[in-house]
Specification:
The chain has about 400 residues and is mainly alpha-helical. It is about 65% helix and about 5% strand.
Length: about 400
């Protein structure tokens, strides 16, 4: 059971018992258990260390397993009756109050309530009592909320004050800042941010290569395509077929293909396609990078005038990687446009043309409504309106039985 699942298990157990989730549970070496702030009853039974132990054994977060060693003393001796352990004696602990706030934040985030999620995360991030691992998790997710809201300025200001230099989130924070700088055409700052990743102590080898590949993205943004391709190709060769480095290898292949694609050299598009197909076939690639590979593969195939083939990689992103939010909206819009193009190419089969058109309009409507505010949603809405009359005629020919694409895409 992973750490998040164990937190949920314990908090739900407390909620079912009617208890306030404000207890500290500590297990020390030798199996000794200390409980502070515990409720009077669990399932209408008086609380004892023994019945608390049942919950702890089912739902503990293990400090050693999750890298939380060296925790501080939980309370000053004498503040409450109980048993206290030195930091190096603590084996496991649950701090129920802060995970409950995190659970509230996760729930609000999933519902799109980003302001409420930020407020809940701040309760954890600003807590003097919460363990550092929770504070950093909350701090990181505040920035992600800002990005989801489209408030890049607030995200940039938040991540610029990142407090956890040795945290596992730190490389990702620098990467996000680098990408923001790249979008702002502050290319020197972007390269500096990628350089900061490479200077972090104890950086995993995969991240070392990712930090070196970061400036390749900047070169592409600066339209230095030859330099970008050469660097990415060199790093891919250096990585080789090392299975533990599949993700940075896939990223190197992706960047080579992007450099070729962005250079608008149509004669080399089959070469770019081959690179991307090599990337998607690697095992051990993160969902985000796999979604990026499939998205780029769709672009490359579409640019070769093959919408009937391009629709497949786009739909893989939509169906297989819904969590890769940076790519899903564009994949929906592009897949929809592929179907629209396919409908226009069918000259002698009205039924097939209508089917393609209706499928495409459904995808455009989904993009416009689910990803409102994004550039992809705007493009999807424009294409929808352009093809609305033809779509309504297609629905009428089918007997009016399929108008599911009409809701929301036209602003109604």
């Amino acid at each position: 059971m992973d750490l998040l699942a164990t937190r949920i298990t314990l908090v739900l157990a407390l909620a079912a018992s009617g208890a306030f989730a404000d207890a500290l549970l500590v297990r020390a070496k030798g199996g000794k258990l200390s409980v502070e702030g515990m409720p009077d009853k669990i399932d209408d039974e008086p609380v004892t260390v023994a019945n608390w132990k049942v919950y702890v054994e089912k739902s503990t977060g293990v400090i050693g397993r999750d890298g939380y060693d060296g925790v501080e003393l939980l309370k000053k001796a004498g503040d409450k009756k109980g048993q206290f352990f030195e930091a190096d004696q603590i084996v496991e602990r649950i701090f129920t109050t802060q995970p409950e706030n995190l659970l509230e934040a996760y729930d609000n985030f999933a519902r799109g309530g980003f302001n409420q999620a930020i407020a809940a995360y701040r309760l954890v991030a600003d807590s003097a009592e919460a363990p550092e691992v929770y504070r950093l998790e909350a701090n990181f997710n505040i920035g992600i909320c800002y990005l989801q809201m489209g408030n890049v300025k607030a995200a940039q200001a938040h991540f610029a004050k990142w407090p956890g230099q040795n945290s596992t989130y730190t490389p990702e924070v620098h990467r996000i800042l680098a990408e923001i700088h790249t979008d702002q055409k502050a290319f020197d700052k972007a390269r500096a941010a990628y350089g900061q990743i490479g200077e972090l102590p104890g950086l995993p080898k995969a991240w070392v290569f990712k930090s070196r590949l970061g400036p390749v993205k900047v070169d592409i943004a600066e339209r230095k395509f030859d330099e970008a391709e050469a660097t990415a190709k060199s790093i891919a060769g250096e990585i080789g077929m090392n299975e533990t480095l599949a993700d940075p290898r896939a990223l190197a292949l992706l960047l080579q293909a992007q450099a070729i694609f962005e250079s608008a050299n149509k004669a080399r598009l089959p070469e770019a396609q081959k690179l991307l197909e090599g990337g998607v076939n690697l095992a051990g690639v993160t969902p985000e990078n796999r979604a990026a590979l499939f998205t780029s593969l769709g672009h490359v195939i579409y640019a070769q005038g093959k919408p009937e083939e391009a629709v497949y990689p786009y739909m893989r992103v939509v169906c297989l990687y819904p969590g890769a939010t940076a790519h899903v909206a564009g994949a929906l819009q592009n897949a929809g446009q592929c179907f629209i193009d396919m409908a226009g190419r069918v000259k002698n089969d009205q039924a097939a043309s209508d089917s393609h058109l209706i499928n495409g309009m459904k995808l455009l409507a989904e993009c416009a409504t689910r990803h409102k505010g994004s550039a992809s949603a705007s493009a999807a809405g424009s294409s929808y309106m352009k093809n609305k009359a033809a779509y309504e005629e297609a629905v009428a020919r089918r007997g009016g039985g399929d108008d599911s694409a009409s809701a929301g895409a036209d602003g109604k």
